[in-house]
Specification:
This protein has about 325 residues and is α/β, with parallel strands linked by helices. The protein folds into two domains: about 170 residues, Medium-chain alcohol dehydrogenases, catalytic domain (Quinone Oxidoreductase, Chain A, domain 1, Alpha-Beta Complex), CATH 3.90.180.10; about 130 residues, 3-Layer(aba) Sandwich (Rossmann fold), CATH 3.40.50. It is built from ten helices and 18 strands. Strand 15, helix 8 and strand 16 form a beta-alpha-beta unit. Helix 4 packs across helix 5, helix 4 packs across helix 9 and helix 5 runs parallel beside helix 6.
Length: about 325
Amino acid sequence: MKALRFDGNLKFVRNASAPQREGETLVRVICAGICNTDLEIVKGYSNFHGTPGHEFVGRVIESPDSSLVGERVVGEINAGCGVCGDCARGDSRHCVARTVLGIKGRDGAFAEFLSLPHRNLIRLPQAITDEAAIFVEPLSAALNILEQISVKPSDRIALIGDGKLAQLIVLALSDTVGSLSVIGRHPAKLQIAKEFGADQVCLENAARLPMNQRYDVVIEASGSPDGLTTALGMVRPRGTIVLKSTHHGLTSVDMSQVVVNEVTIVGSRCGRFQPAIEMLPKSQEKLLRLISQRFTLDEGLEAFEAASVAENMKVILQIDSGTGAHRSA
């Protein structure tokens, strides 16, 4: 099968082996999205080798659950062992033995086919388009913030970053929080955040705040190694920082600020898919605005180059030839 493979260098190949995992479901990938984690993987993040990609929509080809065959699905990316305490509680996101689609120990979605346990797959309502479905995984990650922390209507919240994930966080939080400010580097992207529901937007070099204007919650989604340092300069004493960025390499930060100001730091990763799927029908028109370019799988290397351009938002691979893949500006 055709696939993008990473072995220290990203390559497009035509003869990759189709995934064969006993007892799992085989999915033909319709389209897949490139996110910042994928860009970090090809820099060495997570020491992953294989087929990257975890944002996808596909159609089930074979499954132990015959009712899934032919269905259009998205998939939870964490595949747990199924027997540990976390898995028994229905949450494989922190199973010690888990594999993660396109990130840890499991080939991902930048290929014609992928494999996942059938319990990871969720049928999509017909009203959700293929391209909007690409956003289920990152939108669930954005909504996970509300699962992890309690936000009061009176809280002042700052979001550092104006990229793909940051825009989804704006959508996820704008109807819930009282005040949401977005700090970014790109005026055009900040304008999108404003249209998506941010109360205030600000260029990063203007975001130096006096102590009496600091924020109750700061969400770091810049993708930059300096993001935590910026967040520490913006959060109030005894406030909360939510870390969303993943990047290759170590982060240098003055941890004394955390201790002296008694700051709570919360790492935030994957969310549950169902709330995102429920939110999609009313949000998909906005989400489709975030797609900058489309490529075929054969053009995958070019797609990664486009995804690396700061001005671009979501770049997608339209993989199933039956979907009428095309490139657009």
